[in-house]
Design goal:
Elements (H helix, E strand, L loop, with lengths): L6 H4 E6 L2 H14 L5 H7 L6 E6 L3 E8 L9 E9 L5 E2 L1 H6 L7 E4 L4 H5 L4 E2 H5 L19 E6 L7 E5 L3 H7 L3 E8 L3 H4 L5
Parallel strand pairs: 6-8
Antiparallel strand pairs: 1-2, 2-3, 3-4, 4-5, 7-10, 8-9, 9-10
Length: 200
């Protein structure tokens, strides 16, 4: 999704997010990541300065925090914090995840063998989650993760997240089938969005 992302070419229109839309975003993020409290969400998405929404291509929205410059002749810049494709889940950027490493976001861990493929932008295959070293939330009465859930992806033996993606099947199906694509990668370490410092 962001493999060749270039903010100077790929970003078109920008609009300030209305308060009602920002509340809806917070609600969706809280549903996707139940461990995040209201206070944490308020710190991540404060009312002032408001979020700025950028349109990237025909189906992608990039939500940024406005950072005012202390110098008079330098305009404000926007730092990407979340993004959403069509009606999919709202996903955090890796820089946000790295900035707040103690956030309890819904996550999985892939085994060491998957790391080079993920850093090249490949999707996560089911064995990368079920092999020793990989892990997912436990399945109880219902699957720990449902198809379409937004996920932060960590790697075995690594401290920081290496990618963000969307489940293509439930965690129950991943364990049962153990083949095919388990997570579609949306954003990974070293892609265009990760390298973009700001959007102006």
């Amino acid at each position: 999704m962001f493999r060749k992302f270039d903010p100077s070419n790929d970003v078109s229109t920008s609009t300030q997010v209305k308060a009602s839309v920002q509340r809806a975003l917070k609600s969706q993020i809280a549903d996707a990541h139940p461990a995040l409290t209201e206070d944490i969400l308020d710190a991540l998405l404060p009312k002032k300065p408001p979020l700025v929404q950028y349109k990237v291509g025909p189906h992608l929205m990039l939500y940024c925090q406005r950072v005012e410059s202390s110098e008079e002749d330098v305009s404000a810049s926007d730092i990407p914090v979340f993004f959403q494709e069509r009606d999919g889940p709202i996903l955090p950027t890796l820089k946000l995840v790295h900035k707040y490493p103690t956030l309890q976001l819904t996550s999985v861990t892939v085994d060491k063998g998957a790391i080079p493929f993920l850093l090249g932008g490949a999707n996560v295959m089911c064995p990368g989650l079920t092999n020793p070293g990989g892990s997912m939330p436990e399945d109880k009465e219902k699957p720990g993760l449902a198809k379409g859930d937004g996920i932060v992806i960590f790697a075995e033996g690594k401290e920081h997240a290496i990618a963000v993606g969307v489940m293509t099947m439930s965690s129950l199906d991943v364990r049962k089938k153990n083949k095919g694509i388990g997570i579609e990668i949306a954003h990974y370490l070293g892609d265009g969005l990760f390298q973009a410092e700001e959007i102006q």
